[in-house]
Design goal:
Helices cover 55% and strands 0% of the residues. It is mainly α and 104 residues long. It has one domain: lambda repressor-like DNA-binding domains (434 Repressor (Amino-terminal Domain)).
Length: 104
């Protein structure tokens, strides 16, 4: 898995752990970066990059902003986090995983 894929997986994992929707994460990201609005579709595409095979090219500024957004060291974004052991990052429809916070 590439570094970009690891970042994308960790962004999803960290967002879910905070209990944020994609829209909320995108809004908070824009507040940190001061960049033009990030759409839910754009945020979603960044999170899904490893599954779609279309790697998101994260810039250094985006990576720094993501670390600030989630309150983690930059290096944590590059860690290859395995899928959630409880649900495999795919909880059943209508349920929220108690371990990772993921929802279907």
């Amino acid at each position: 898995m590439s570094a970009a894929d690891n970042i994308s997986r960790n962004v999803r994992r960290l967002r879910r752990a905070k209990g944020w929707t994609q829209e909320e994460a995108a809004r908070r990201f824009v507040q940190i970066t001061g960049a033009p609005a990030v759409s839910k579709a754009s945020w979603s595409a960044g999170e899904r990059a490893p599954e779609t095979g279309r790697a998101k090219s994260w810039t250094a500024n985006e990576i720094a902003a993501l670390a600030e957004l989630f309150g983690v060291p930059v290096g944590d974004l590059f860690d290859s986090a395995p899928p959630c052991r409880a649900c495999g990052d795919k909880p059943p429809a209508g349920f929220t995983c108690n371990t990772c916070g993921g929802t279907a």
